[in-house]
């Protein structure tokens, strides 16, 4: 005897198509959430790099101004310090691990369908 999935394919192909389109929608939804997290992470790395370059540029400028004027003012350290602080915040955000459980619902749905198919195959024809 044929497995129930084959008789369903022959008699009701629309059910299989609907089920596969549900899989596609679920996979697209979960991929979008992962993609958003990766974009945020990439932007944090870019921001960190830009802030470090800005900090180095401002620190170099502060040193030159301090040497030219013969005295060092606190503002000469504060301005590059703000860029350094922003770089550290971006670094912490960039190093934050991705949230777990990606594709958990998709995997759960596949496992459920496999269990259902095994149960249907065990009761039918054996």
Task: Describe, in plain words, how this protein is organized in 3D.
By secondary structure, the chain is mainly α. The protein has a domain of about 80 residues. About 85% of the residues lie in helices and about 0% in strands. The protein is built from 4 helices and no strands. α1 packs across α2 and α2 runs antiparallel to α3. The longest helix has about 55 residues. The radius of gyration is 29 Å and the shape is rod-shaped.
Range of strand content: under 5%
Q: State the oligomer.
A: single chain
What is the succession of H and E elements? HHHH
Mean pLDDT: 82
Structural class estimated from helices and strands: mainly alpha
Distance, first to last CA: 9 Å
Question: What integer value in Å does the Rg equal?
Answer: 29 Å
**Poorly predicted segments:** none
Main sheet makeup = none
Number of strands: 0
The total count of helices amounts to: 4
Which term fits the overall shape?
Answer: rod-shaped
Transmembrane segments: 42-68, 74-94
Keywords: Membrane, Transmembrane, Transmembrane helix
Protein name: Phage holin family protein
Organism: Rhodoferax koreensis
